[in-house]
Write a structure and sequence with these properties.
Number of strands of chain A: 2
Number of helices of chain B: 21
Largest sheet of chain A: 2 strands, antiparallel
Number of helices of chain A: 21
Largest interface: A-B, 30 and 35 residues
Largest sheet of chain B: 2 strands, antiparallel
Oligomer: heterodimer
Distance between the termini of chain B: 58 Å
Structural class of chain B: mainly alpha
């Protein structure tokens, strides 16, 4: 491949990052450029998503085998674009509502998106690292974007400190692997994998990478930052971080651990299984006691990282497909749920408590129905996407002779029924308090926000009923 | 028309869903139109299912009206529906009870009517799907989806304690069904290990599953059966039932008792027994013991209930105990009896719940002590109540007798149960049923009219009479000529029983 076809291969990333650069310049030149930035971001993300679809059949690598092109990379590029697009659609009203509508928000989302796309398509650990850094640094700022709000500042700082720590682990792991294999290219490592079986440094590197990735996907015991960050960050950004960034990190996780390291070995997979069980258990149990909906979703996102890790622990074909499918399903469910939260939320972090949702289903029928769909989908009720994803993941565990892991997964699901349904209970089953009935809620729902939530809900439903619409793209990934 | 004939089961499953979609487009203020449409769509579904009932040919073995479309090909999961004699009866019961339930409670639900009717139709889709599904994945989807509308029906339109009851209902059911999900996956995986492919196709699994090692069979049997036992509910998993029944609105109780509970017994007959015969032989006596305990326990608890609805709810535990005992008997008579008893219970208990709902609409209480001497004020109501109560307690000539008699006869001579003790103890349940139902009847309808509020109770109106009369037709029909129904299911039941006897002799040979 020559330089130009290489460039063409990473077209989605190019579009998004150049849109980011253009928006920076526009922001500097124009006085009130937020609206232009907003539309430009939307257009660039749509174009990037379409180009990812167009590149899908290419199946190759670019830049001397550093970046995957087509297939796997395209799938993740596409779903990341979808997630970012939904985030942007949701954020405008939210930012206006909180009086922080600055164009930088869009720039940061675009750069984070570019980072995620690189992260999920890096066939070289250096690209993985670059992607993770580009994504994380943008997200640190995004978390602290509501700069007058102490909670948001706390979120940004916490994320930065712990994220830097995680990056250290990751980089150290890459260094060890480089030390023992003399390469950072996953293809070469994969081809010579047999030679490293007894190399202690190699496995040390794998272990450190595992820690680094676990940090990024917020799996127990490396989850400490997640609840505070997701709670403090502006709500659409929380959805973006907890779903899209997590999916991108899982994209890299699968690429490195399953394709690069052949699913690693028994011990590492058992370690992943343990991390998975801890995440599912702890995330779900703590989520029960949360009264702040954002925080509840934050803890539940830890649990969902646990579910997805089942696929990595079993490391077989079904597991791989499960991770990929669940990534998309999770983006739709979680961004949608956070989207509803951002629509319901009022100035100064108000209306985030579960009690503020009492009677919502009767006051705002559409929002109520959509939120219920997200809650049922996150629980894993059929016929929504969450169920099919869990089916794949549990099936992969059974196939890998880890039936106990599947059982742990269903028990964790059972715990989650309680708090997800609690939202539905508040929205529909509880009587509305008198003061709410007397002061009807005047907040209007903007078209773009409603559209984003609606798209997510329809997506959750359609890919839940017709999972092959997604899974048929998994038949050939490289 | 030909299109309909080819996809007739799909039409039965999804016509209510279409109805729900149509209704969702209508302005929620037009309550009567919404109710009418709900009734229309569920009646149409019933008419189609009657056509299926007539067309169903018991002489053919295997499943009929089968439709199959690939769904997730890599896992050999398909949209596969079909019915045999076992599901046929329950399918018709479901499509019958939904419109009747809606009709009987036409005026008792007044708030959020639109959501109510939509939820009902969605529920019907789920229930019809459960009885038609011939793919474990599809079955599980319908099994779980059905929870959502039922949860809302109890939770939004229920009584005082509805949230507690709704959550308890969902969590209890989920405990079982999630473990069943693992078993479904494991079963598919065993199919792939035995030289085949991962599959969800029930007919393929019927071949594979009995060959699985005994330990795995036992685990999977327990996972499946726990899920079904909670749904039935088999003693001691019944504690969700009184709460759910008492809090649910009348039509919800009718469907809950009439159909939802049957899903548990249907599941045992469709999945647990034929898939895991050897595990069944091991657990059969224990389940039969629980069933008999349930029969007696349910009857005794019913006897002391001050709340009429709770009385009927606990009587379900007792009646379903009979059904489970019949299934565990594994003779043609007892299984046929179990099957017809499922239908009977759906009709009788459904009608009882409707009657309780009717009196509740008038007096806003269900406490037995609040009534007395009603026979003079509401003679029509009293007559209907008498017939239904008699059918429920098994008076010869009405439907309950047929089922209970067949079950007792079959389990008495069952080789699988091995002892006549089960039948003997279970028979006391028949007597106890007479005791609690007739005592309650006496306290409500006879004696002096003590309360002034009771003097002005209006008797049943035409709509209520029609809805009850529809149920009564079948109560009498099954009581006098059960053969219409039994002959449809007999070959399918025979097949299961003969299969089990083959496995049984095989087991004994292996032990020698």
């Amino acid at each position: 491949m020559n330089f130009y076809t290489d460039l063409f291969g990473i077209l989605p990333v190019l579009i998004v990052s150049s849109a980011g650069l253009i928006v920076i310049i526009l922001e500097a030149l124009l006085k009130r450029g937020e609206t232009i930035s907003y539309f430009l971001s939307i257009i660039s993300l749509i174009l990037a998503g379409l180009s990812a679809v167009y590149i899908y059949p290419m199946y190759s690598t670019a830049f001397n085998g550093m970046v995957a092109v087509g297939g796997y990379a395209s799938f993740f590029n596409f779903i990341i674009c979808v997630g970012a697009l939904l985030t942007i659609l949701l954020s405008k009203d939210y930012l206006e509502k909180r009086n922080i509508n600055y164009g930088e928000f869009y720039i940061l989302v675009l750069f984070a998106t570019a980072g995620m796309m690189f992260l999920a398509s890096g066939v070289d650990l250096i690209i993985t690292f670059l992607g993770i850094e580009l994504m994380s640094i943008s997200l640190y700022v995004l978390a602290a974007f509501a700069r007058t709000d102490p909670k948001s500042n706390e979120a940004g700082l916490k994320y930065l400190l712990l994220g830097a720590f995680a990056t250290g682990f990751l980089l150290f792991g890459i260094a060890f692997i480089y030390g023992s294999t003399t390469t950072t290219n996953l293809k070469i490592i994969s081809a010579n994998f047999q030679n490293y079986q007894n190399d202690f440094l190699f496995w040390l590197g794998v272990g450190l990478l595992l820690v680094g990735f676990s940090f990024k996907v917020a799996a127990v015991p490396f989850h400490m930052w997640a609840p505070d960050v997701y709670e403090g960050a502006p709500t659409p950004a929380s959805g973006f971080m907890s779903a899209v960034a997590k999916s991108a990190a899982f994209g890299a996780f699968v690429l490195v651990f399953i394709f690069g390291f052949h699913g690693t070995n028994e011990q590492v997979r058992n370690a992943i299984a343990v991390i998975s069980v801890l995440s599912m258990g702890l995330g779900n149990i703590i989520a029960i006691s949360q009264t702040n909906v954002k925080r509840m979703l934050a803890y539940s996102s830890i649990a969902h990282a646990g579910y997805i890790l089942i696929g990595l622990a079993s490391a077989n074909e079904l597991g791989k497909q499960g991770v990929l499918y669940y990534s998309l399903a999770y983006i739709l469910m979680q961004v949608g749920a956070f989207g509803v939260v951002s629509i319901v939320e009022k100035e100064e972090n108000k209306a985030l408590n579960i009690n503020d949702y009492t009677g919502l289903g009767h006051r705002k029928p559409l929002i109520g129905v959509l939120m219920s769909i997200f809650m049922f989908a996150l629980t894993g009720f059929p016929p929504f996407a969450g169920f099919v994803g869990k089916y794949y993941l549990f099936a992969s565990a059974v196939q890998a002779k880890m039936t106990w892991l599947a059982v742990a997964g269903v028990l964790a699901t059972l715990i989650s029924v309680y708090y997800y349904l609690n939202v539905v209970i508040h929205m529909y089953l509880k009587e509305q308090p008198a003061e709410v009935l007397n002061n009807p809620d005047e907040t209007k729902i903007s078209i773009s926000g409603a559209l984003a939530v609606l798209i997510s809900a329809i997506g959750v439903f359609i890919i839940g009923i017709l999972p092959t619409m997604v899974t048929r793209y998994f038949e050939k990934l490289f | 028309m030909e299109l309909l004939q080819k996809h007739i089961l799909t039409a039965i499953i999804f016509l209510p869903f279409v109805g729900a979609l149509v209704i969702s487009l209508i302005n929620s203020e037009r309550k009567n139109l919404i109710k009418f449409l709900g009734l229309l769509f569920s009646t149409l579904t019933f008419i189609i299912s009657v056509y299926v009932f007539i067309k169903y040919d018991p002489a053919k073995t295997g499943f009929q009206f089968v439709e199959k479309y690939p769904w997730i090909q890599s896992l050999d999961i398909s949209y596969k529906v079909g019915i045999d004699g076992i599901s046929l009866l329950l399918l018709v019961l479901t499509t019958f009870l939904t419109p009747v339930g809606l009709l009987a409670t036409w005026s008792s639900v007044d708030k959020r009517v639109k959501g109510y009717v939509i939820m009902f139709l969605l529920l019907e889709t789920g229930m019809n799907g459960v009885f038609c599904a011939l793919d474990t994945f599809l079955f599980y989807i319908f099994w779980e989806t059905m929870l959502i509308p039922m949860y809302f029906i109890i939770g939004i339109w229920g009584g005082e304690n509805r949230i507690y009851a709704a959550v308890k209902f969902v969590i209890y059911t989920m405990v079982g069904s999630l473990l069943m999900l693992v078993a479904i996956i494991a079963l598919g995986n065993f199919a792939s290990q035995m030289g085949g492919q991962f599959t969800g196709d029930l007919e393929k699994l019927y071949e594979v599953a009995p060959k699985v090692s005994l330990n795995a069979q036992i685990l999977m049997f327990l996972a499946f059966t726990l899920s079904f036992a909670i749904k039935v509910p088999l003693f001691p998993f019944h504690t969700w039932l009184p709460d759910a029944h008492v809090e649910a609105p009348t039509a919800g109780s009718v469907i809950l008792a009439g159909v939802l509970l049957k899903m548990g017994t249907y599941g045992i007959l469709r999945f647990s027994i034929p898939l895991f015969p050897e595990a069944t032989f091991i657990f059969l006596p224990y389940i039969a013991v629980l069933a008999v305990v349930g029969i007696i326990y349910g009857a005794l608890v019913s006897f002391v209930q001050p709340d009429l609805k709770k009385l009927v709810a606990y009587s379900s535990v007792s009646h379903l105990g009979f059904v489970v005992l019949g299934l565990m008997g594994l003779t043609i008579e007892s299984v046929q009896g179990g099957l017809i008893q499922m239908v009977n219970h759906g009709l009788s208990t459904g009608a009882l719940f409707m009657l309780v709902g009717m009196i509740y609409d008038r007096r806003h209480t269900r406490m037995i002590e609040e009534f007395g001497g009603l026979a003079r004020v509401t003679p029509v109501y009293a007559t209907f109540f008498m017939i239904v109560a008699l059918s429920s307690l098994g008076l010869p000539g009405l439907n309950g007798f047929v089922g209970e008699f067949l079950i007792l006869l079959g389990s008495f001579k069952s080789k699988f149960l091995g002892t006549t003790a089960f039948a003997i103890f279970a028979a006391t349940g028949v007597i106890l049923a007479a005791v609690y139902l007739l005592t309650a009847y006496q306290r409500i309808f006879f004696g002096k009219l003590t309360k002034t509020e009771n003097q002005s109770i209006k008797d049943l109106n035409l709509r209520e009479i029609v809805s009850l009369a529809l149920v009564l037709i079948f109560i009498v029909w099954i009581g006098i000529y059960p053969n219409t129904f039994l002959k449809k299911s007999e070959p399918s039941v025979k097949k299961v029983v003969e299969q089990m006897e083959k496995y049984r002799s095989g087991v004994f040979r292996a032990q020698r």
